[in-house]
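Intended use. Records such as the Peptidoglycan bridge formation glycyltransferase FemA/FemB family protein entry shown here are meant for training and evaluating sequence-to-structure methods. They are not intended to support clinical decisions.
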Amino acid sequence: MLEFIAARGSASFLQTPAWARVKSEWRGERVGFYDGDELTGVGLILYRKLPKLPRYLAYLPEGPVLDWSRDDIGEHLDALIAHVKKRQTFAVRIGPAVVHRVWGTKTIKNAIADDAVTSLTEVEPDVTTVEGQRVISVLKQGGWVSDQSVHGFTAGQPQFNFQLPLRYEDGTQKTEDEILKGMNQLWRRNIKKATKLGVEVRLGTREDLQEFHKVYLETAERDGFTGRPLEYFERMWDVLNAEQQGRMQVFLAEHDGDVVAATTFVTVGEHAWYSYGASTTAKREVRGSNAIQWAMIRAANDAGCAVYDMRGIVAGVASDDPEIGLIQFKVGSGGQAVAFPGEWDKPINPILYKAFDLYMKRR
């Protein structure tokens, strides 16, 4: 499985074998797709049991890992359905990690500035990929269903993400100066300000996850979300780094001995992710968040990555959108918003699936 992922250049870290050990409350299974003797795809399936019933949801977060430009994608998905049917599943959920639409920096800024626009989905994207269109068409024809009305964060993985390309279209790696020039003036000024005020960013060790977690819990309380326990991040560190040394790292931004921002960073092949981030309420003026982002971007670029992924955003761009600050911060990096096809379900037992769907919507 890892050999196939390496040959493709990258895949979501949620589809690596190690991720099954991170999500220990699910049962994991690794599968391969074959065309004759040729391995054409891989996938990590996570099975979640229904309460009091011997039936399971089969979930492939940001997977499976396929060449989505193939003509036989429908046959691959049919094979997946046939396989999970043998595992007492009532439905299978996938999230094709193929870019469907792209909104560039200028388009996003214009959308934010336009009071008549409330969502990126109301704005013509700069790119709509043929590959993404084909995937959606195949899914619809195959009877897969998706809640296309959802534009924010859902129970699964986000449909909208923010990515900073680190290479030009010809494959040339960008220089640090070129990446900086792509940022807005505020980002560049804040990076310089952090340096001038003495903010230092260092690469941490497993023990530093405790420092990260303190700031993370402060952020969770401030922003109103339920934080994960320290043990989750320690398990994530242990299993991801056991699979490949250095796959997960922790960065800490410090000012006069105080941790002012902390992040986790994951790399698979040519793709790097800013996976979790946290900052203190105190000393926000020293711009630790900008400093730590710049450190991770440089690390990804030094590793020869093609993409620095800042993970989920919402499509909402209205001035009163509760998540508007997130996209405003990320767009300053000079990156772009990308939309995947989203998560799609294939009901196998329609009655159980409908009951499950109603339960999730009530939650």
